[in-house]
Amino acid sequence: MKRKILRILSLLILVVTLVSCSSVRVIADYDKQVNFEEFKSFAFYRPGIDKAEISDLDKRRILKAIENELIIKGFVKSGNPDLLVSIITSSREKIDVYNNVYGAGWGWGWNPYFYGNYNSVSTSTEGVLYIDLIDAKSKQLVWQGQGVGYLSVSNNIDKKEARIREFVKAIMEKYPPEMK
User: Which of 48, 72, 81, 86 has the fewest Cβ atoms nearer than 10 Å?
Assistant: First the structure.
């Protein structure tokens, strides 16, 4: 009975750990000399986007999410834009091995009736999405947002799209930068 309780407790800790990792960690960098209020229109920078090593379906999902976020911020998609938008993606598999030894006993003694070893292995995919905003006139990078988080590897397309939107929204919340 105690062994079963400890296994359930170990699994609960694992689930809490994985759920806490579901958020997107975001950092942003920008050129302090740029007046971001001047930018009103955007277009996608195809040469940069074509280099992203993900499926065309996921590229379209990411670009659609970026477009929606920029439109919410008041931007207009244009053939003669102020900003060019590019993306860079990467991912890596993470393997976590948990070795839980329990049963050393209470107090000064050792309890031979309560000893066990519970191992668990979990794998996850951590993804990184960079969103680059480039001044269309000078062709200089003026803002870059980076989001890092765990990716959904399920066959559920709706969950995948929701996770992409979550990544993009979290990154784009940092734009425009707060000028001091």
Answer: 72
